UniProtKB/TrEMBL annotation:
SUPFAM superfamilies in UniProt: FAD/NAD(P)-binding domain
Family: Belongs to the paxM FAD-dependent monooxygenase family.
Entry-linked Pfam families: FAD_binding_3 (PF01494)
Chain ranges passing through the membrane: 395-417
Domain FAD-binding: 8-170, 303-388
Record keywords, A-Z: FAD, Flavoprotein, Membrane, Oxidoreductase, Transmembrane, Transmembrane helix
The protein, known as: FAD-binding domain-containing protein
InterPro entries from the UniProt entry: FAD-bd, FAD/NAD-bd_sf, FAD_mOase_fung
Superkingdom per UniProt: Eukaryota
Gene Ontology MF term list: FAD binding; monooxygenase activity
Length: 472
């Protein structure tokens, strides 16, 4: 790809997916700018588990060792009944055997900081809300709330579940009668959730924070429509989540209308505080034979870092149109119980970066071909992650179905469980234009088409550079 044929990429959204795309384009020397509507990204959220499906890429990017230094090794997950009677732990160490990589729990803000440092400051424009997007046959232009406009060849919507880029793209498709009916529908959700992370805790009062490995615990409400989760971090804090299972699907628009009609409000600081009060007495095991309540954890969490969120789940069918393309929550919002939301967003970014690197020209025809290949590769993987997250959400729910699923998992034959774990980590993609990390573990990784395509392009360019050097 010559300098003249490299596309200029406009990325809307500086979440993990948008940042990862930027970091990879930086390595590929493809010009890009990231636009983020907030002026500063607050360290909200709980924690996520990073394992074999992402760590080879992190190793390529040179951030593997830092992640391990900030993470907590996860080998088991622990379940409790509402009275804190323990359930059979799940041992997931077979993943290490299969892949050569461990599972690490890391606070989401810490992971964000690691990825953020891969993107130069001058590449991100903060405090820029997208007002409009216009397009002609050759270029796409984003118009911002700062009265600035930026022109590029491609616009990427990495701006979350209620994406402005998706909205604009879908308006164009609706006007032509080309938007599938399913994509007209609102994002559904069946859970609301409180998330947060405490300040550094005293290990004498909370022995769990001194455990050498991550103690990921889930308490299943038996007479309450809740599950609640806590896990210790390498920073001496507890990450936590309290989930209310609503029992039926809702949408943001329907819920907001219902609360407007009742002169109430569902979202904001006061409802978060109300949910804290509602769940204060929920018990948790904090190690060393000690117990505490979620209220104890809330009181040790900075109030500005407690958030109430909806746990939507939907995979949109339409991911691209002309020079528009979506990634992450903008095209697939996964229930977080599977732990795949941020992972799939970064996998999207990787596939897109590989394909853009291998793209021969920046014509509309070649851009469309790249987007079609991107959707063809990513959609089946995302649907598999979506189905897994739905199944896990049912297991973490309350009621008879949850009881049956938990019983099945507790009694599953070891060979079946190992087969399931092996299948879950077979997809360990890498960046085709960076140094490939060799095979680790006993199970070979599945080679993605985008990685293969980028690798072929990289090797052809290396040969061309060598021939040019000889001729000189």
């Amino acid at each position: 790809m010559s300098a003249e044929s490299k596309p200029t990429v406009l990325i809307v959204g500086a979440g993990l997916g948008g940042l990862m795309l930027g970091a990879l384009l930086e390595k590929a020397d493809i010009p890009y700018t990231i636009f983020e509507r907030t002026t500063v990204v607050k360290p909200l959220g709980s924690a996520m588990v990073v394992g074999p499906t992402l760590l080879p890429l992190f190793e390529q990017l040179g951030i593997y060792d830092e992640l391990l230094s900030l993470g907590k090794h996860l080998t088991h997950t622990f379940g409790y009944k509402q009275n804190l009677e323990p359930m059979k732990p799940l041992d997931i160490r077979a993943m290490e055997e299969f892949t050569g990589y461990q599972q690490w729990a890391i606070p989401r803000p810490k992971l964000y900081e690691i990825v953020r440092r891969l993107v130069p400051d001058q590449r991100i424009q903060f405090g820029c809300r997208v007002l409009n997007i216009t397009e002609n046959d050759e270029k796409v232009t984003v118009h911002l709330s700062t009265n600035q406009s930026y022109e590029g060849d491609i616009i990427v919507g990495a701006d979350g579940a209620y994406s402005a880029v998706r909205q604009r793209m879908y308006e164009l498709l609706k006007a032509k009668g080309e938007l599938p009916k399913a994509d007209h529908e609102d994002l559904p959700f069946s859970c609301t959730c409180l998330v947060g992370q405490t300040k550094v805790l005293d290990p004498d009062k909370f022995p769990i924070v001194n455990f050498p490995e991550c103690h990921f615990t889930t308490v299943h409400g038996q007479d309450k429509p809740f599950t609640w989760h806590v896990f210790n971090t390498a920073q001496g804090t507890l990450c936590w989540m309290a989930v209310r299972h609503l029992g039926r699907k809702n949408t943001k628009a329907a819920m907001e209308q219902r609360f407007r009609d009742s002169n109430n409000a569902e979202w904001g600081d006061h409802p978060a505080q109300a949910m804290c009060e509602e769940t204060r007495d929920f018990p948790i095991n904090i190690g060393g034979g000690k117990t505490a309540t979620m209220g104890d954890v809330y009181d040790l969490t900075p109030k500005e870092y407690i958030s109430k969120v909806m746990l939507e789940d939907k995979v949109f069918k339409t991911w691209h149109h002309r020079r528009y393309v979506l990634l992450g929550d903008a095209c697939h919002k996964l229930n977080p119980f599977g732990g795949h939301g941020a992972v799939t967003a970064m996998h999207d970014a990787l596939a897109l970066a590989n394909l853009l690197y291998a793209m021969p020209t920046r014509t509309t025809e070649d851009i469309t071909k790249v987007f079609e290949e991107y959707h063809k590769e990513r959609y089946p993987n995302v649907m598999e992650a979506y189905d897994n997250s739905i199944m896990l959400s049912k297991m973490f729910n309350t009621g008879i179905l949850s009881t049956i699923l938990l019983s099945l998992v507790s009694h599953i034959p070891l060979w079946v469980f190992r087969l399931t774990l092996s299948k879950s980590v077979r997809f360990r993609p890498q960046c085709g234009f960076l140094k490939i990390i060799g095979q680790k573990g006993t199970a070979a990784a599945e080679l993605s088409p985008s990685q293969h395509k980028a690798r072929v392009a990289f090797e052809e360019r290396q040969k061309a550079y060598a021939r040019a050097a000889v001729s000189i």
